[in-house]
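Data deposition worksheet. Section B asks for the primary sequence of the deposited chain exactly as it was used as input, without tags or linkers unless they were present during the calculation. Section C holds the resulting structure in token form. Section D is free text for depositor observations; keep each observation to a single sentence. Incomplete worksheets are returned to the depositor.
Section A, Depositor: J.P.
Section B:
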Amino acid sequence: MTSDKIGNKAIIIPRGTKRYFEPRFVTLLPRQTLTWINRDTVPHSLTSGEPENQVTGRVFNTGPISAGSLATVTVGPNIGNIPYFCTLHPSERGTIVVIPKHEESLTNSERLELLDSVFSLNNPSEVHAIRSALERHFDSNTLIRIADPDLLRVHNKILTIVFWDLSGFSAVCESLKAHPVLVVEFLKEYYTHATNIIHKYNGVLDKFIGDGIMAFFGFHSKDGDENKHAVDAVNAAIELKDSFEKTKKEWVDIWKKKIGGDAISIDIKCGINTGYALVGYLPTEKRNEFTAIGTHVNLASRLEGKAIGNQILVSSHTKNKIQDQFNLRTILVKPNEEIKAFEEIHEYYEIVS
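Section C:
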């Protein structure tokens, strides 16, 4: 069972044979109303409290919510956390977090206190799993500074999304198939440099995709700071490009000693776009992930696919935010070479060193 907040509404839908709330936490102001809509095929009955505690239902008890129906609860004036669960499926749990003022008005210390109070209601192993999952995306100092319930729910935010990929890497792998450890060690060094650079510029490491990397910038920026995180993203791309050249030179020398004097060509290419994306922590039945999704994410990926050699390509959305600080070369889209799913785009831009 998932609970996706839409304004002050939550949707109850199934997730295979196992049901749970996703996200587990919904924030409300005192005396605000939350409405659950049952999109599942079976009834649910939500009550405040925890199934291990014999005292339940003191704050609310919806009674059965049949498939296709809804139930509404208005929280009281008290600040705090209201855990709840489904009496018909006790493993399904959620928490309403009643906060004193709008989330954007909270100070960093208030956010941290709020996050800790929410975490304290959960199973310690679950808390550890969530924090461990987030640690791979943020450096430790940033994770502490931005501790925020937003980490636990998907929301819409302007981000600058970056994709990197290695051209020629498949050929390198084929040439070194008898020496896989040399490929693995190269990737480890490349990923380590990339992670450090992404974090240096306040970015979030989303995932490694084979020899590719996805990251985004601006997750913990205020609205109106789009220019800054777009510039951060481009600076990160330039620094990783320079770092990769040094790493490549060292490893090509090592590889040639193993496979002879054959020419080895490998480059890093990059695509960048800025725009709204859905971002947040996505717990699923098989895997938990902190990620960004949406059309603007797809465009960044498409631009990376258009890049050749060591190009860093940016969209017009990003170009408008960085053009005062970087040299750009306009690339016109040729006939029959349109960007898939973005055929209306007629030009994009290369960062020129």
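Section D:
The chain is about 30% helix and 30% strand.
The two ends are 50 Å apart (CA to CA).
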